[in-house]
Predict the 3D structure of the following.
Amino acid sequence: MIINGKSKISGIGVALPPQIVTSQSLMEEIHSESRFGVPANWMDTRVGIEERRFASEKTMPSDLAAEASMSAIENAGLTSRDISLIIFCGIERDYAEPGTAHVVQHKIGSNGACMDVSNACQGLISGIAVADAMIGTGAVDNALVCSAEVASKGIKRMIKQINVNDSSYFRDRLGCLTTGDAGSAIVLSRKNSPVTGIQTMLFDSKGEYVKYCYYRYEEDGYIDGQMLMKGICDKVEEVHQELISNCYHYLDWKPEDVSHFACHQVGKKSVTGLCKIAEVPIEKTPITYKNYGNTATCSIPIALKIVNPNPGDKILLMGGGSGLTSFQGGIVW
């Protein structure tokens, strides 16, 4: 699927909880070396994730999403009443129903139409695609696409469930410990020039690989999940290698034209691999995994916030997630 953008990013907001939790402390808590033969510094040295943020026990996804949303709306120079559409895209939600977008709407004082869009780590980008289409029809002038991940709750549950010396069980779920909490939001507005804003976005899905990474409820209500990091990263890289020439073709860019490369980040190996595929030096990539871990749907907005682009900057976007889903695209600031 190919999308030709009709909107621009007019505001970005990020919410990061204050509590810092180191990777080594998590590994030591589960006695990874004595029980499973995995050194306590494995995540620091092999994955590159040194720490992440944890929200308080009572924090809901809508809390972080609302905080980031207010920041994004202010950054766009708008008010909550200027927002016609709110899309929430986090993996976890306040409720199974209604959509968390409704809770965010209430917390920020908006009256925009609400919906949730779910697509694993690619959720926020999928939400942007939906909002961009709505703007393209003329139905919406300003849309808020927000997300939040409170992965710490799942991490704490998983640590309690690892109560046997089953090395294969642990290794299949080790990737879940790489995640971190964050909120993010992007305001999209109608663009007034075809040469700025969202340009082209390419999407691809390969459903045969759904079991590489999943999070589900069993029949007894038990939460189970796994993240086979090598498998999913290798397959995502294969898809990106297939897409990249078309992406540059539709954008009419060359690798050297890229000002910044904002990609979804699960660790240093994945970022290094994506930079190689895009033929963009890693110096053009804002690193989010080192201090925030894998923030799933929030990683690209965090990267954009770090970059703080200048007008005219060309930003290449790339990412993927369980499903297996992948996307590439470009924005001119």
